[in-house]
Amino acid sequence: MYKGIYIALSGAVLKQKHLDIFSQNIANATTPGYKKERISFKDYLIPVDNKPPLVTDGRVMTEASRIITDFSSGIVMRTGNPLDLAINGDGFFALEGGMYTRNGNFKIDNEGYLATQDNKKLLGSGGPVAVQGRKIDVNAAGEIFVDDVSVGALRIVDFDDKSKMKKVDGGAFLTDEPGKDMQASVSQGYLEGSNVEVMKEIVQMITSLREFESYQKMIQTFDEAASKVSNEMGKG
Question: What is the distance of C-alpha 159 from the center of its chain?
């Protein structure tokens, strides 16, 4: 009976984590360059006892294994803002502090450098990109011109193993994996949207909510049964 409660509880905990992830994805559906997340989970049989060899009774516990980021591209949208940049295909904009992003919604910070909205400087081939001038142009090869004078080129980096990239604030990523500089096509005046499909996330959230409620009812049923058994034993 108690194992039944543990099984139902493991399912409820997993569905709660699913709900949290779906909520986070939906909340960031309009965030440029946001990459949706998923939960990887694993099942294992419950042993009858802990004495080797382990014997199972066929019941299964479920637990969250890890959170996986879906790095598929979002739809590229025209904004007309010369500080908005989109990478066509693979790759990430390199930022100071060993961070990387697909969010090309940049600005000019107080020091005259291209930066993210939360003030992480964008890196070019020679370091942070200074853009003090009236007219800023970025061509398809990522070369940057200020008032028609070249000031360098964007540093765009890709990784063989993106599974080791850790999401941090502002939609940026950190990783210990060595990145490789790459040539990528860049569109000025465009932004890559998130890869969140809102209706799909909502449907999955509703399904998970119903499953969560079912697990809650199972836990309540097991708890009531356990209380009844305890009361009967007390009378005996």
Answer: 16
Provide the pLDDT for residue 16: 85
The CA angle 176-27-122, to the nearest 5 degrees, is 40
Q: What is the identity of the amino acid at 110?
A: N
* pTM (2 d.p.): 0.78
Omega prior to 53 cis, within 30 of 0: yes
Q: Are strands 190-192 and 185-188 parallel, antiparallel or unpaired?
A: unpaired
Residue pLDDT, tens place only, 148-207 = 999 999 999 999 999 889 999 878 999 988 889 999 999 999 999 999 999 999 999 899
Q: Can you tell me the distance from the alpha carbon of 111 to that of 126, in angstroms, rounded to the nearest whole number?
A: 17
pLDDT-based confidence at 227, cuts 50/70/90? low
DSSP-assigned states of every residue in 96-152: TTTEEES--B-EE-TTSBEE-TT-PBBEETTEE-B--SS-EEE-TT-EEEETTEEEE
- Is 113:128 a contact under the CB 8 Å cutoff? yes
